[in-house]
């Protein structure tokens, strides 16, 4: 699936910067705990960096049911490390009163841990992708130019009638 997304991203219309920036925004926002707002967040980031919205939507696919557990554990642990706190122990009994306290105890470390990982993931996406897209677009332009040249050089297949 990753190679499909990269292939689709290279074929989008736009500058290499806008496509790569859009994809990087989508990937970066996937490293935040704002589930349900990833598309909106990636579009808002695209406004700031002039990214491609379709590429941003594709980039958010990095966050999916298979990757979210790993992402959440990583941002939670990093958040606690950056805050200098300990990770919360799992509680066997939940009630509504303790729910909101636990959400804050989990959500805030995830926000703090998600920001640096989002930045790293976004940059790790942008730089290789902008080069790949530029190379693909240049190769595609050369290929089209050579095809146009071949069509112009072909002799006419019309048979003249004397």
Write up this protein.
The chain starts with a helix and ends in a 9-residue tail after the last helix. The protein is elongated and about 75 Å long. The protein has one domain (2-153). The chain is 72% helix and 0% strand. With 162 residues, it is an all-alpha fold. The protein is built from 6 helices and no strands.
Q: Helices, strands, pairings?
A:
Elements: H1 2-10, H2 16-29, H3 38-49, H4 53-59, H5 68-83, H6 96-153
Helix pairs in contact: 2-3, 2-4, 2-6, 5-6
Radius of gyration: 23 Å
Q: What is the residue-mean pLDDT, rounded to a whole number?
A: 83
End-to-end Cα distance, whole Å, is 60 Å
Could you list the spans in which at least 5 consecutive residues all have pLDDT below 50? Answer: none
Strands, total number = 0
The assigned structural class equals mainly alpha
How is the biggest beta sheet arranged? none
CA-based shape? elongated
Helical content, roughly? over 70%
Oligomer: single chain
Order of helices and strands: HHHHHH
